[in-house]
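Our collaborator T.R. sent over the components below with a one-line note: 'Predict the complex.' Nothing else. No constraints on interfaces, no templates requested, no preferences about which chain binds where. So this is a plain run: every listed entity goes in together, and whatever single assembly comes back becomes the starting point for the next discussion.
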Amino acid sequence: MREQETVFKNGNEMAALAATQMNLHLMGYFPITPSTGIPEELSAHKAEGHHEIVLIPADGEHGAAGICFGASAAGGRVINATSANGLLYALEQLPVQSGTRTPMVLNVVTRTVSGPLDIKGDHSDIMYTLNTGWIILMAKDPQRVYDFNLIGTKLAEEKDIMLPLIIASDGFFTSHQKRRNQIFKDKKDVKEFIGEYKTLYSAIDPENPITIGPYMNEPDLINNKYQLSRAMDKAYEVLPKLFQEYGELTGRYYNLIETYRMEDAEACLFVLNTSFDTSMEAVDILRDQGKKVGIVAANVIRPWPKKEIQEVFKNVKGLCIADRQESYGARAGNMSLEIRATLKDDINNKTLVFNRIYGLGGKEFYVEDAIGLLEEALKVASEGKVDKDFDYIGVYEGNKHYEAKKYVEKVSSNFFENNLVVEKDEEKNELIVKGVNTRSLTAVPKRIAPGHQACPGCGIFPNLNLLSKGLKGYVVFLFHTGCGMVVTTGYPYTSFRSTYIHNLFQNGSATLSGVVEMFYEKQRRGEIDKKLEITFVMVSGDGGMDIGMGPAIGTALRNHNMIIFEYDNGGYMNTGYQMSYTTPHLAESKTSIVGPSFEGKSTFQKHGGRSTYHKDTVAIMAGTHIPYIATVAESHPVDFVKKVAKAQYAAQKEGLVYLKALSACPLNWKNPPEEQRSIIGTAVDSCYFPLYEIYHGITKLTYDPEKALKKMPVWKYFERMGVTKHLLRKENEDALRNIQKEVDRRWNRLKAMDAHPLL
Amino acid sequence: MQKGSLPTKNQFGFYEVRLESIGGLGANVAGKIIAEAGIVGMGFNGSNFASYGSEKKGTPVSSYIRYCDHNQQVRINSPIIEPHILGIFHENLVARLPITAGVNSMATIVINTDKKPLQAREYLKLSGGKVVVIDALKIAYEEKVKMNVVMIGAITRVMEFIDKDAMREAIKETLGKKYHNQLEANLRGFEAGYDLLELDEFEEDGRFPFIPFQEQRSQWGYENAPIGGIIVEVGNSIVKNNQTSRQGKIPLFHEDRCIHCGMCETTCPDYCFKFIDKEDDKTSKILMFNLGLDYQFCKGCLRCVDVCPVEALTEELEAEHEVEKITVKL
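Returned assembly:
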């Protein structure tokens, strides 16, 4: 036994603690609820100097998976964490990694796969990974999350295994619930257990050149897969030994399957992860009534514990398999399919099996639910027949007598009239807008209703209001995932009075371009009125232009008639403020925590690049040569609305428009709600966020703080935000000077572009 | 290993605490501290978690703490339905949620309010139980700390089985590192919460019924909901009420000073202002005029006060005004 100590932590914290104690080499990640706590906690450990793990914020989960694959191919120890659609976005990389036999550990903190978007937990995500060739351990509580991260790292690296490995824990139930846990007191014991990683091949061993990932067709590929299959067999053989070895060190022993009061059980429930614990209470209650019931779960589902499952159910008469997901159309969840197949292979098995789907979208699973399922299993056992082999529990039919109410009067094309006039001066290549006046614009009906759930002082809604005022007639919105979407459309409520679509964080531009082209094609075919005019607006923010950059560029290069509007709040705010590429250089965020050993957002400054200064999304979009690009700020509302009116003109007549607003976030920037507009003003006046437009390649400043005699140094903006205040401290003098230099460089470049139409 | 014993337990062996709050008041941190004092400090077993949504300020949040004996396993993950202690961080929550659901006459309710226990019981419509009142906001304001430490003080006092020192240690552990300079003030806030509460006990006298816990369901289910999660009732968020987001301050509109420039309307995130068109007395033109704001949606951010060029909007204490009377319905 090695000395253990007690900690009170949740699943995400335990995963991070394991990684810290192992001092892995690298983590490539992209934040997604509910797994984000893992990189956040590792960032906190890094700030304190508890580990040396390189934390790489990717541009999306696909990128994160690529980073991890590369790092693993380069022979180091790698970790990642993700959930739900993040996992699915990375999914195509998973077989690449198992097929090339590059081990690592991925913590899947399970969550419902969208859509509609649901951030709570079920097993619809993890079941997609069954065929990927990754080992899958199921950690039902924070203790197992820690233990399985250690055991899993060692298992994945075994010479005859060399497979990547997933540890799946239940989102929120495990990831966010603090429990009392045991950990190794001394890191040395952890290191000793996992041993040294001896990779067979490495991408960074130039004296032994190798080819990783050849072009391999038939007849060879099948052999590669057979090797993989045999590696899984090996894992099945080794895992119990590792469990034993680990138990001897810690006193915590595990088996491939988890059982409770199964000795003489006639009726039984199979459930994965946290529901197993809940069901233990149900079993105790029923056992007290003299009923012979028990429960089973699996600690590993790849490799599949076939023998153990056959053995445990040998004498069970009635078995309920409760799945927290469905393989739609199979009328079964995946565990139900697999266990039935497994029992079929045991010719002596007579167990009657039925399947229930429960707890989708994080719906609670109470002890009474478990009792209900066990009672059903008892009935099946005693009657010797199954009445209903498949059903959902916990659904409800709704109020049949409820009639949908009307909250908006009939909308006609002049309903959203703003009386603005846009004219094009062909000679000067300029758009001229008349009639912008904040007083008269109060007459424009709101496209978004009050009652949304944003934080007090949120900057998104003044921005959307100004956007909406500049647009006349019909608008179809598409929102990326983000605060703007989450706080407006919490079912069964919506704040939108115009048509609205949501798509996930990365793919809004592409999706809306599909809507746009269907509109024009239907018009061309005469299927809808040819005179109908609609303005299509994609709204992104909260880092959506990081993960969504690729589709946005694609949409720009295709030049669809639509507007991309970005409210840039400098971070992933809807998931609690992790850094995005637009976060100010060296700013604090939950994944760039400032401390004795870390200086804030700064990952790759080793070679003197400028890449971690706030991302210049406008410059990237300008490279696509779309008709109109502009920056807008709520501190300059007239300029804002004028640009929106121009955007509408350009989107309808010329093609794609990109508008970018700097959007205040009092919660995460850490400043008083009432000051948001003036803070945005300092960003504009310090030239951190200059106001300009690019129309057909010609750049014009629309506001020059120098000419207005308002130009200020960038620290005047940084001192207003809790997350950048530290940059004003004496010890950060040089860093601040460098940021000022970069802001000056970009500003001077803009001035030159303003002065010269060719730039 | 375990110091002391739990005074009472539910059928699953737990002593349970539920904290009802709005995001930003520190209920999550309070939950963590209370749990740690019992589990790390006193050697009980247990768990702590919160209700989750996306990360927002000003919206309701619940925090849960379970204690059980040292050697008992924690097998329950679900929210606390019938708490032994209910902590209410913001009294406006009563208007919005069935926060007293599942709270029976065996429970102790600790509420942040300037009311007396009897008034608080009426206000909460409690079937019965011990009612503890503490003016946490006022104490927090005086000590310049967050009100959560004051609430922890009051809850510690009524829990009895948790050593005061264990709670102080947990506060030091959680708040001491990051907010080192405020630690002494935080501990003073904690002590004040411990000392200054008022308590009264109410029989289940039939004055108000016990409200059982029920899962919140919408009108829509699998038989009648439009497929694909489509919402057809566009703009229905207007039935919502955002008033619990306010923390004591409101903007007050002075029509006589207003120049109707519309700047307040451009900065208001919650679309509270009501402008109408009418003929201007001086110019005989049809112009837009500001009538004021609808407090149903006002979250008290005071952005409008900040941008108003003529002080037609001023920052005021909500307690000094009757918002129902000055509100202008949209």
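Summary for T.R.: Chain A has 23 helices and 25 strands.
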